[in-house]
Model the fold of this input.
Amino acid sequence: MTPILITAVLFFSAFISGLSVFFIKRNNATFLKLILSFSGAYLFSITVLHLIPHVYHDGGNTSPEVIGLYILGGFIFQLLLEQFSQGIEHGHIHQEDNAGFPIGIMISLCLHAFLEGMPLVSGPQTQLVFGIAIHHIPAAFALGSLLLNTSLRKKSIVVMLLIFAAMTPLGFMTSKALSQGEVSILAPYFDKMMAVVIGIFLHISTTILFESGSADHHTFNKKKMAAVFLGIAISLTTFLFPTHDHGSHEGHNHETHDHHDHHDHHDHGGHGGHEGHNHDERHDHHEGHETHTH
Done:
């Protein structure tokens, strides 16, 4: 995916979802719970199927044990963030009419979104981009619903939603800017950042799966099960239609190098044959000339 496409998908998925609170009835809890179940299942599936294998397989010089520590750290970090965000990352909506501006929620939510964008420079981009985008749909809707219950005007709410929607693209562009040049500043840390995001995703996705659906959070009704299996099925389509985020350029360069070597070998052989031919021809001509003179 191109940087422009990544930025557009991440920004508009969050911004449009946040703006939808002005047009969709917020008391339709069943629909929101199904969206949550789908996003939680998809997020969990891409984490297990793509992100975890990638960070362990291409983790560079970082040992698997250290990667595991960073995943655990990301899980705990998200747990601490929710003390301030009140669970908006996984769609929790807290109705408090005429409440003040939720500064703690806004800061923690923006920090969470910024961190999610940083590993996008390195990793399975397609899966990670759509995982973040789908995860931000209920989060942005919950944030918009919360802001509607404050004393903020609509213009201020739109500005807050713009700031939140810009955080993940900003994290991506910041990471990309720091990674350019001959010596990348962040390259040694991409696997660790990815591990932290994996821990965050594991916390959010499992929380969504167990808390969305019914009063008894551990009960899975038919609609929720359908939404969960749909999320898993879509994540599995990448095995049927694999993306080409990695490896294609390396293979192309390798083939080009082999082809070049073949031509070099051919040219040297032809040049050697040419030299041998000229040498023999000059030698025969010289002998003939000496015999004639004598």
Summary: The chain has two domains: 3-246, 247-294. The chain has nine helices and no strands. Residues 246-294 have pLDDT under 50 and may be disordered. Residues 3-246 form one domain.
